[in-house]
Amino acid sequence: MSKEELNISTHEHDELLEGPLPEGFPQDGREGKVRNVYVQGDQICLIASDRVSAFDQVSPTPIPGKGEILNDIARQELEAASQVGLANWLEYVPEENPRAAVGVRADVLPVEMIFRNYMTGSMWREYRDTGDFSNFSLPNGWSEWHSFADNPLFTPSTKSDVKDVNFNPDDVEEVTGVDTETLGRMEKICRELFALGTKRAANKGLILVDTKYEVGLTSQGEMIILDEIHTPDSSRFLVTEGFEETIARGEKPKSLSKEFLREIILGRADGDLEAAKELMKYPLPDDVVAETISRYRQLHELFTA
Hints:
The chain is α+β, with helices and mostly antiparallel strands. It is 33% helix and 22% strand.
């Protein structure tokens, strides 16, 4: 099964909100954090909703237009990956429904493949507070936005019952049951994909700060990329122009991704992650919704131009 099929509730298709289902898919599906999932044999249909999640909590407030934006960026990036020989799940996006994507169903491997060009976000917070990150034995004295661009850092994670758990790649088998040979194959594929995404973003005047990928095995045993890639939900993006100057001034660069929402909620929670999760249970203010979709649209316009 795909990542979107894990730990999700039953769902009845709502054509008004989701658009039409492709022919052959049943009305009964399942509801993930931000996508609704329909299965027909070895095929899967994911329909991107306007739901938004942060800190493993889905907000009760939708971000209007978000689903179509994510689906279009993911389509473009998955098609670009296929063109350079990186196998992935996507077969097509139905003309009659820009929120939907249809492709190959696969069994997800329980390792989230996270790659970083810079240190920020949760990695920076842990390093700042403890001097290390997930037993990587990192050097002292690094600051936020330390660059890994010459050799992107691979920091895998896996799902527990309540949150994502980061771990050192050396501990993969103990933590997830995935053997080191399989992880090596996963890492090779995803490094190539991250290099492609970094280059494609740079060509559009964007910095791909970090991202995460899902990998699975088809019923024929082929290893493929799953889910969405290089979207503002799964990745951090910044505008290249002015980035270095902003960092030199000690200021935060403008994020064109969900990181904006995370920072707003975390700031209102005084940096407390559990409190931030609780805040996500309440409706988002109108100005936060408007600014979030504005940044998603800006990224979409720049990245798909």
